[in-house]
Design brief:
This protein has helices at residues 2-12, 17-31, 52-57, 66-69, 86-93, 102-108, 112-118, 127-131, 144-151, 155-162, 165-173, 181-185, 202-210, 213-218, 224-231, 233-243, 255-259, 276-283, 310-343, and strands at residues 37-39, 45-47. By secondary structure, the protein is mainly alpha-helical.
Length: 345
Amino acid sequence: MLVAFILALTVQAAPDAATRIDQIDTCLTCHGDETLEVTLENGDTQSLFISHEVFARSVHGDKLSCVDCHTDMVEIPHETRAFSSRREISLAYYEQCKRCHFQNYAKTLDSVHDTALARGDTTAPLCVDCHGAHDVAPPNQPRTRISQTCASCHAGVSAVFARSVHGRALVDTGSADVPTCTDCHRSHDVAGPHAGNWIDRTPELCASCHADTPLMEKYGLSTLVHQTYLTDFHGVTARLRRSDRDRDQPVIARCTDCHGVHDIMKVDDPESPVIRANLVKTCQRCHADATENFPAAWLSHYEPTWERAPLVAAVTLAYKFLIPFMMGGLILQILLHVWRVVVNR
């Protein structure tokens, strides 16, 4: 009873280090036994062993005691609770995280994962499925840990991503500059291709890196890819269709329509859909009658210059002078006409 009284008090306030260690040692009196387990209603067994070493190495090891999360375990022996499966145990306790991480918990309510859980899919990932329970570690150390975590459910997508230019760079460098799953899909408020307008907004998603001048200069990449996309007929078409709420045609062509999604390759990779050898096939996805010369009519992501597309550059330059000249002449003509009317009165 004395232990139960002590545990109850500690729920109300954060314990000091000595008290926290005493609480953990008290719990491990039983849960330090590697053979401790319970048999669930479905016949499975659930180990109740907690490794002191593993918990001590976790991010919570020097901050929390057991009852900070297991708030209902304030009496010894514990109140009996019946669980039908291991998953039911996870579902019963995963909301304990919100006591400290409410902001991130609130974000999960807008995620595709929570939507799946709400419609009864109990396999939808919970906090502990991504972060662990007693072995919680920094989610991005190393950075590849993020995609490895997602791969536990999305193995097929993860395998494709690993072969992409982004996936290879992530493994080779581990650099924070390289996008991983959460950079595109977000972390707690995870969005997917079925979220409203998510796919339509992929150009802005790509631009978050490819329009970042300091970042692209670091790798010798041009930031013109986004700007030229917005101004060419692909970007204009996509923007017009997005603005038409009553549209009956899909929004095309976005970055992912040509470059791929999780399987994006370097533009000079033989497997890239935008390398010259494969470009006609890529164009034919939308332009069924496209011939070998069809891609040549497009400037790609380049701006017209005297070295590249001199005729287009000349026309562009001419318009820059011709249009102001014509507008200026029109305004001058109107002013002279008004002046003549006033003078002749």
